[in-house]
Amino acid sequence: LLFWTEEVTMKPIPSFYFLPSTVEDAYSIGLRLCEGDALEARLMTGKDPAEATVDSYLMTYAMSGEVMTCWINGSPEMIFGIRRGELLSDNGIVWMLHTDVPARWGLMFAKYSRTALANLFDSSDCRRIENFVLADNVRTIRWLQFLGFKFDFHFIMSSRRWLHFYMSKEADNGCCGRA
Fold first, then answer.
1. Residue 95 belongs to what H/E stretch?
2. Are the CB atoms for 121 and 167 separated by under 8 Å?
3. What are the counts of helices (DSSP H) followed by strands (DSSP E) for the chain?
4. Which long-range contacts (CB under 8 A, 24 or more apart) does 138-143 make?
5. CA quadruple 134, 138, 143, 145: dihedral positive or negative?
6. pLDDT tens-digit profile of 27-85?
7. In this structure, what DSSP letter does residue 177 have?
8. Helix (H) or strand (E) holding 119
9. Distance between the two ends of the chain, CA-based, in angstroms?
């Protein structure tokens, strides 16, 4: 209960929208990656996070994959894509990189991103999507679980523990946690 003497402060309602990505979006987001994503980008590629983000965009785009950018209050804050893992496989690689801004919007952002991922996955010709995340990137792991990803094994790379995550279209609860 709020007492009449207590002051109520509310966050403004953010503007979320998803658009096809551009190389400029990838670079802008790459320059401002959250700490966990920046570390993963460096460890996986050996490159600067902005360069690694642009490379992910270009590789996905070149392989006829789709890349989307989440704009929050007029600024690109998350970029994600799905591309085929191998030519003759129906498995795909999903990647999602973001700044610190989405975390400020918590569950609201998580719900919008789950819908956007579901739409992207549904429109892809992949039956399964997968990738890896640093085991100590707890915030991202919780988000991935909310999105509906499952975790099945770990491995050591660059002296760090990584977790494999995946999602299948034929999963028991449907794509991205949707029944």
1. strand 91-98
2. yes
3. 6, 7
4. 139/34, 139/36, 139/103, 140/36, 140/37, 143/110, 143/113
5. positive
6. 999 999 999 999 999 999 999 999 999 999 999 888 877 899 999 999 999 999 998 88
7. G
8. helix 106-123
9. 36
